[in-house]
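Bench log. Compound arrived from synthesis this morning; before running ITC I wanted a structural hypothesis for how zinc ion sits in the protein. Inputs:
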Amino acid sequence: MSDTDTLFRCTVCGGPEIARSTMRGDGVRVLFCAGCGMGVVEHRPADTAHFYTDDYYHRAEGSAHGYIDYEFTAEHGLLWTRVLIERLLPAGGAVLDIGCATGFLLSRLGPAYRRAGIEANPAAARIAAEAGIDVLGADVLAPGLAAAHRGAYEIITSIATYEHVLDIRAAIAASLEMLAPSGVLVLEVPVISPTRSNADWYGSSFEHIFYPTERGLRSLFASFPGVYFTGTETAATGFSSTYIGLATRDPARFAELGDLLAAMTADDPTSLAEDDARLNLAYRVVHEFRPTPARIIRLPLLLERYYSPSLGKRLMQLWHGDASRAALAEQPWRRAPSRGTLVRLPLLLGRAIGRTLLSRLRRLRAA
Ligand SMILES: [Zn+2]
């Protein structure tokens, strides 16, 4: 038994036993709790502010921390979140984004939404504030912050943030405290997948503290009385898995979340209602990068409402790039990748974008 074994106490469940450990690319050990399955770095730093300095959202090539092109990552990473918010609160409402960066997600919500954010990076927080976002603070765990906003938000989003905090259980407790009675917490975190490569999580992003597993997340949420939790492992092409989780205290809201999650993750959007199909395409095509002919045929539905230059850039990657071949390589037909299929996909995508642009032009002429 090593020193680590004798000192280990799980931040999430308090359990004393390590089930297994993995060495990260920078030599830091990640320990997985036997009790709840959550993973955490062997030695948590005293504080994490030094990771989120001004170059975090514009990192240098080769740096192990931060983003190379935040706007682009945000566009395909956050579109599904925006579509989901608009489904859950069609008439607007109070939305808090934990880890809001420059306010990318919140800025895209219309004036019907009361928008608040929490952001650790001072320069990004300033830009968010200038865009009219109410920046509550730098850290969800700041003393008194959650109590000051108890029950205030109908939706709280936390996309790629909980893995960075020093205490994931306390951060989720604070988030749940700020949720209105029928409010919804929408989260996405890296997940250690039992079936897919975890190379992105162990080989980069060395600022991460927590390494959630699905079991770890489910047992974490089960420890909050009266909170319902559901979710799904995402499998973005060419990228390690993340986990999208949805939590609420309201049973009716939870039933609705189950329906939305089913629509979002459905394999074939052909028979989905238009609103459900938009959510499905934002998730399956834009976020997961998994185009199929059936998905691309319905893509104009999404583009009519959400087209932007960086979304266009994302779709161009599908059209031209290696990613398209990578996506095809993982599709069920990969054992016989007929030339017809390889040609058909970009053609369908081109037609979908062309149809969207044409109908926009017609509307402009009519106006
Ligand atoms: Zn544990």
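What the model suggests: The first strand starts at residue 18 and ends at 23. The mean pLDDT is 86.
ITC booked for Thursday regardless.
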